[in-house]
Amino acid sequence: MVKRILALIAVYLWLAAAAIAAQGALAISGAVPAETMTRAFTALRDPGRQMGIARAVAAARAGEFKPVEGSAPDFGYTPDVIWLRLPLVNDSAAVRDWRLRLDVNFFQSYAAYQVAPDGSITTLERLTPESPFSARQVDYPELVTAFQLPPGQATTLYFRYWSGGSSQLNAVLETAAGFERFAASRTAKNFTYYGMVMFLILAALVAWGVTGQSIFAAYGAYAVSGLLFIMHGDGNAFRYLWPNAPLFNGFASLVLGGGIIVFGANFARQFLLTRIHHPVMDKLLLGVIALTLAMIVATLVVDTQMIKKWMVLVATLSIALFTVSGLVAARTRWREVRFYVLAWGGAVISSALMTARHWLGIEISAELQYDSMRLVIVVDAAMMGLAILDRINQLKRARQVALEASLREARHNLDLSRRLRELEQDYGLAVELSRSHERRFADAIHDLRTPLHALRLHVNALVSGRETAREETAAAPDVEETFRYLEQLIGQELQAHGSGGLDAARQDLADGAAPEVARIDDILARTHEMFLPDAEAKGLRLRYVPCHACAGLPPLDLMRIVSNLVSNAIKFTERGTVLIGVRRRGGALRLEVHDTGPGLSQAEFDAAIGRSVRLRPEVAGAGLGLSILREMAATHGLDFGLIRPRAGGTSLYVTLPPAAVPA
C-alpha cells in the first residue's frame, strides 16, 4: 500500500513538473511555420561568449531571456553569441521524431541542447569553426537538429550560435516524415536550377572555344561566380565541393560575392566596350574591381563580419553601375545593348532586396533572397545569350563593312600616291619655271614648301598603314583640302606663266571686278591641319579660334596670307603656343597670329618685311615670308603690321574686308 501511494505521489510530481514546464510552451502536433516559431522563441545575448548550457538554464529561470521582436530572430551583424530558448509540448497522438530546420547553411559556432522537465540536459548538436560537414547530425545542406519528444510530454530546446555574417535566423519545426518530403523537394529544385545554369555556362565556354570571342569567357566567369554563390547560400557547396574546409566556408560568401562583382564588371567593360566608347564609365568599373579586391584582401587584418556587410552594399551599387553603363551605351547603341540592360535591370531588384534586409533592417527571408537570385541569374543568362548573339551578328556585319572600307582605302591610297607623284612633278616644273621668273615663283615656292611637307607626312602615313583606322578616316578630308589648295596654287602659278598671273589679277581688281568670298573658318581649319605636324614636331601647341564670318578675298589668296603668318610664327617659336584668330574692329575684320617666340621690335619688323631679309641667320629660311605678306596686302589694299611690340612673343595682323555669308 505504501509503495502504491509513493508511486502515485511520484506520478503526481512528474505531471506537476511537466505542467509547470509546459506553461508558455508551444504545443506542436505537426509542422510549425517560421512566424509561429518566432513568437515562441525567447533570446539572450552573450557578449563574452563564455556562457554554457547550465548558466543559460539558470538565466532562463531568472527571467533574463526576452521575447524575440519581429518576424524572425535577427540581431544584425554582431560579435555576440546568441542564445535562443524554445519550450515545447507534444500535442500529437503518435509523432515522436521531430526536426528543427534552420534557414541557414552555416554558423561558425552552433550547439543545440534539450532540457527535460526534471532538469536533465542532452546535447543534440555541437559544431565549432573547425567542424567539417560530416560532423553534422543530419546530412542536409542547411542546419537541422533532430530530437525526440513523445506525445504528451514537454521539453525545452536551447540553441547557442554565433555567425560570422548576419545573425538572422528563420526556424521551421517539422515531423521527421515531413522533413524528408521537404528535403527531397528542395534538393530537386536546387539541382534543377544548377543544371540550367551549368548548361548555360557550358554553352558559353563552347562558344568561346568555337568563336575565340573573349566575351564568352568573361560571361562564363561571371556565371560561374553566381552559381557558386547560390550553391554556397543553399549549403550544397559545403556539402559537395569543400566539405573538409569549414574555415574557407566561413568567408566563402565574401569571395564568391566579390567574384560576381569583379567578373560582372569585367563582362560589362568587354560587352559595352567602355574603354573605347565610354572612358568615364570604364574608369568607374575598374574602380569597382579594385575596391572589391581590396575588401577581400582586407579580411587579413579587418573583421570579416563587417566586410561582409559592406560587400552587400558594394554589390548593389556595382550592379546599379553595370545597369547605368548599359543605359549610357543605349543612347547611341540601343539595339546592341537592349538585352544587356534588361538582364541587369532584374539583377538590380534582387540585389536591392538583399541590401534592404542587411542595411535597412527590412524583414525579408533568406529563401526569398536566394530565390530572387536564382530567377535573376537564369533570366540574366538568357538575356546575355541574346545580347552576345546580337554582338556576333554585328561583328560579322562590321567585318564585312571593314573589308569593303579596307578595299576602298587601298584604292584611295593608290590614288593619293599617284596624285602625290604628279604633284611633286608639277612642283619640280614650278621650280624650273621659277628660274626665269625668280621673284614671282620664289613667293609661290615659299608658300608651297611647308604644306607640301605636311601633306607628304600624311600621305606616307596613310599608305604605310601607320595610322589607325579612325585617324585615317578623320584625316581624309584634311588631306583632300590640302591637295586642293596645293593643286590650285600650282595651277594658278603655271597659268600665270602664260597669262600675266598676278599682274592680271591686279588689273582685274583695279577695274572693279567683284572679289570672291572666302569662309574664314574653313581657311583657319585647313591651315591648322596643314601646319599641325610641323608644330607638333617642335613641341608647340597650334590653336585657332573659330570664326564664322566671310572675307571679301579669293580663298586661295586668304589661304596664302594665313599660311605665311602661321609658317613664320612656327619657324621662330621654340616653345609654347601659336594662336590664330579673327577680331572684329568696327566694320572690318582683323586676322591675328600670336606666338610665344622671342618677339620683334617695330624696327626689326620694318626691316623683316624687306625682301630676302633674315634677322636670325641661325633659323632656316629664305627671308620671303613677311615680304610676301606685305606685297599681298598691298595688292588687295589691306593693312599689315605689328601689334604692340613685346619681348615675350610676336603678334601680327592683317585687316580683311568683310563679306556677306554666301547662301
From TrEMBL:
Subcellular location, principal: membrane
Organism: Acidimangrovimonas pyrenivorans
Record bears the keyword Hydrolase: no
Stated name of the protein: histidine kinase
Class of this enzyme: transferase
SUPFAM superfamilies: ATPase domain of HSP90 chaperone/DNA topoisomerase II/histidine kinase, Homodimeric domain of signal transducing histidine kinase
Topology of this chain in the membrane: Multi-pass membrane protein
EC number: 2.7.13.3
